[in-house]
Amino acid sequence: MRQRLGIIITIILAVGVLVVINSAAYVSDEEQQDSEDNPNRSSYNAGATGTRALYDLLNESGHKVMRWREAPDRLLGSTGQSVGTFVIIGRPRVPVDEDEAKSLLRWVERGGHLVIIDRHPEDFLLPPSGDWKVTTEFLAFPAFGIDPAQPEKMTDGVKPLHPVLPTLLTRDVESVMPSRFYSSIKFFAANEDAKKKAEKGPAQSKTENKGNGDEDNYGSPVTGSGGGLITVNSSPGNSPAPVVHLTAGTAVLLVDYPHGRGRMVLLSDPFIVANSGIGLKDNLQLAINLLSASEGLIAFDEFHQGRAILQNEFVSYFAGTPVLAICGQIVLLILLMLWTRGRRFARPLPLPQVDRRSSLEFVASMAELQQRAHAFDLAIENIYSRTRRVLARYAGMDYNSPRSEIAARVAARSTLSAHQIETLMRQAEDAINGGGISERQSLQLVKRLREVEAALGLRLRSREVKQLGQNI
Q1: Distance from the first to the final alpha carbon of the chain
Q2: Longest CA pairwise span in the chain (Å)
Q3: What is the rounded CA–CA span in Å between residue 311 and residue 44?
Q4: Which of 59, 189, 224, 387 could be cross-linked to 194 through a Cys-Cys bond (beta carbons 3.0 to 4.6 Å apart)?
């Protein structure tokens, strides 16, 4: 027990030392302050550049939202069937590669609704719309040191923008307040027919559309190859050209266009949906319109924000803390103890030889042999020899003295009858000398010998006392 107590105390001390060492050596990573140079557009981020406010508001207002933490190709499987809108906000911390972009665009072709809110998304994320190619252009880069948590600095010199057309994406939106770092969305005709149509201008384009029997739908200004605004029919059945919903002068901030059976939406300023800008003007209403235009779940892309499910949840929970290091060191310590206790450090020693035999085994064996051989005289001789010796000692005489003298002397010093003692001694000696005696008679004779010893107060061994009690 003492050895085990020492081992337990040693383990507790070792674990305590490991905890102290790891706690002292652990240096927590300083939380990076949000900035437009290195924004964190994750829906988990409650900072100025995050989108936690938008996610929580959609969730609490009854919209079905989720955080997508798996690879984009899972959208093509059963898990992506319930997703109606997929949202990519800002330049992701984990870049979207071309294979992932192909999976996303294949999902859009099947009827998905992809919303990209970024100042300069990758070109392979923006598929062509019919004969029109879509891209973006920086107008002003975020200056170093501007605090995104101060909206007045982010919107310095910028006027609220009004929707170009009353569309589903601009429903109930009177004005939108972008930041001073929005980008311009550009799209150009890819072939000669589209270029000629873009160069004809608004009036001629409208005339040709009416001449072709098309309805006079509301037009939307788009930026052509020459940089000016032209009007194209916004009906998806008549033209695949991107539909412009929001402009700032000649700069386009919000467009959408079809892709397969789905639709692409591109907004060129993440500040509009960020925590610091979502409350300005009608930015929130515009964000809700963009994300709720399609039925189904609204999935915020967290896979490319560094929140992918790539490891055990337990490991993810304690990532960045000394808990994992402490657990690893404890496991190593336990393995080391098991190895040392199972390994011999000295020469082999022979096992101790324990004598399992008892002194009573011999007596029991001899008694069983005597009983089987009906050698009751031998059993009585073993007991009577000791009784005669103690009687002679009690009488103060020699062992070989006549039994009559021994009986008389014992009777004189006790309350027993001399005739009774002499008769008992004679019966025992007759049995020893070959007189006929049965098993029952031998037991009665031994019982009487033990009673005489007990009556005289002769000292018996504990084993004999126990036997006398059993016989009685």
Answers
A1: 45
A2: 161
A3: 18
A4: 189
Give the total residue count for the chain. Answer: 472
Q: Which of 383, 379, 384, 393 has the alpha carbon at shortest distance from 456? A: 393
Residue 5 tokens read as 């107590």
Q: What are phi and psi of 287, to 5 degrees?
A: -65, -40
Question: Average model confidence (pLDDT) for the chain?
Answer: 79
Q: Which among 146, 153, 182 has a CA at the least distance from the CA of 33?
A: 146
pTM: 0.58
Taking a C-beta distance cutoff of 8 angstroms, is the pair 167, 245 a contact?
yes
pLDDT in tens, 251-300: 999 999 999 999 999 999 999 999 999 999 999 999 999 999 888 899 99
What is the average per-residue pLDDT within 119-130?
Answer: 90
19-33, 98-112, 217-231: lowest mean pLDDT where?
217-231
Apex 255 CA angle, 250 and 259, nearest 5: 140
Cβ contacts of 94 within 8 Å, gap of 6 or more = 303, 304, 305, 306, 308
Instruction: Return the HEC string of the chain.
Output: CHHHHHHHHHHHHHHHHHHHHHHHHCCCCCCCCCCCCCCCCCCCCCCCCCCHHHHHHHHHCCCCEEEECCCHHHHHCHHHCCEEEEEEECCCCCCCCHHHHHHHHHHHHCCCEEEEECCCCCHHHCCCECCEEEEEEECCCCCCCCCCCCHHHHCCCCCCECECCCCHHHCCCCCECCCCCCEEEEEEECCHHHHHHHHHCHHHHHHHHHHCCCCCCCEEEEECCCCCEEEEECCCCCCCCCEEEEEECCEEEEEEEEECCEEEEEECCHHHCCCCCCCCCCHHHHHHHHHCCCCCEEEEECHHHCCCCCCCHHHHHCCCCCHHHHHHHHHHHHHHHHHHHCCCCCCCCCCCCCCCCCHHHHHHHHHHHHHHCCCHHHHHHHHHHHHHHHHHHHHCCCCCCCHHHHHHHHHHCCCCCHHHHHHHHHHHHHHHCCCCCCHHHHHHHHHHHHHHHHHCCCCCCHHHHHHHHHHC
Question: Whose structure tokens read 């929001």?
Answer: 246
Quickly count: other Cβ atoms within 10 Å of residue 412's Cβ: 10
Q: Would you state the structure tokens that stand for residue 441, as one six-digit string? A: 């008679």
pLDDT score of 232 more than 80: no
Handedness of CA 57, 91, 190, 112 (dihedral sign): negative
Instruction: Decide the pairing of beta strands 83-89 and 65-68.
Output: unpaired
Domain segments of the chain as ranges: 52-310, 311-343, 359-471
CATH architecture of 52-310: 3-Layer(aba) Sandwich (3.40)
